[in-house]
Amino acid sequence: MSKTREIKAVWTGEATIEGAGVRLKRVFGYPQVAEIDPFLLLDHFGSSDPADYIAGFPWHPHRGIETVTYMIDGVVNHGDSLGNKGSIGAGDVQWMTAGSGIIHEEMPQPSENSLKGFQLWVNLPAENKMTPPRYRGLSANDIPEIDFSGARVKIVSGTLEGTEGALTDIVMGPTYLDISMHPHSSFVIPVEEKHTAGAYVFEGRGYFGEQTNAISEEQFALLNEGDSIRAQTTENPMRFLLIAGQPLNEPIVWRGPIVMNTREQLDQAFFEYQNGTFIKD
Ligand code: FE
Asked: 49: CA distance to ligand 1 center in Å?
């Protein structure tokens, strides 16, 4: 039987300072981790003042996770211990599998307009935590964009109506969509019943399920179980990220940029970072 998902919780992005002094909104993170499994963190950075982001995220390690950076506006330059170097511009996606370990820098560039983007952390299953690190950069043109149920949908990952997303082999295979709705429209999308799912509104406002309170900019609607998601708009348009993924149900031991399953693994990671044996590949 079909069941439309309803809102279980609403989270509002919290002002946070990260990296060397970047002001951003943390949509969810450590405190929400039990409810958002297999996702770990969603950061929304956006500002028209370069002072808010120019300090960037200088060289730092990651292990045990995958990160997906999706830029809406502006440019972030990056470099990593695998030798990758480049820039992520408007509409581009960078997907990084930290696996056993990567050290990288992510440096937003000053922009005349605004800098706007997202970084999503997806957990790696225990058996893949020490997988060799990998990096992939996709340009805006690589992201499939389709009309679906009256909305414009960019498919960062996942499959929609036979169209496969740009990122096809993130271990957890999450759905990651950027959905633009017109005013006075409704949108229905099928989703795996048991997947954790939620919607982050970053432009305009609208409604999910039967809920009559609008979800507005910088709010994340965590949805309950069900096989479809319904969104509606009234006088405003709405643009939101839809994420969904299979929960891992594994222990999480997390400090800063490293997320493992046990305290020993976490201590080992920091020990290796200190003594220069962190990088395996
Ligand atoms: Fe990073």
From this structure: 21
Residue 92 Cα to ligand 1 middle (Å): 16
What's the helix, strand, coil split of the chain in %, to 5? Answer: 10, 50, 40
Going from the Cα of 106 to the center of ligand 1, the distance in angstroms, rounded, reads: 7
Q: Which residues form the domain of 83? A: 7-275
107 CA to middle of ligand 1, Å?
10
Q: Global pTM?
A: 0.97
- Cα of 81 from ligand 1 centre, angstroms: 12
Interval between CA 160 and ligand 1 midpoint (Å):
29
Structural domain contains residue 281: no
DSSP state of 164: E
114: Cβ contacts below 8 Å, ≥ 6 apart: 46, 47, 48, 73, 74
Tell me the β-bridge partners of 214. none
Structure tokens at 144: 């499939």
The total domain count for the chain is 1
Q: How do residues 207-243 score in pLDDT, each as one tens digit?
A: 999 999 999 999 999 999 999 999 999 999 999 999 9
How far is the centre of ligand 1, averaged over its atoms, from the C-alpha of 218 (Å)?
Answer: 22
Residue 1 belongs to some domain of the structure = no
Q: Identify the CATH number of the domain in which residue 14 sits.
A: 2.60.120.10
Tens digits of per-residue pLDDT, 133-182?
999 999 999 999 999 999 999 999 999 999 999 988 889 999 999 999 99
Distance 104 CA to ligand 1 centre (A): 6
Distance 69 CA to ligand 1 centre (A): 9
Give how far Cα 165 sits from Cα of 21, 117, 181, 195, 220, Å.
Answer: 33, 18, 19, 18, 22
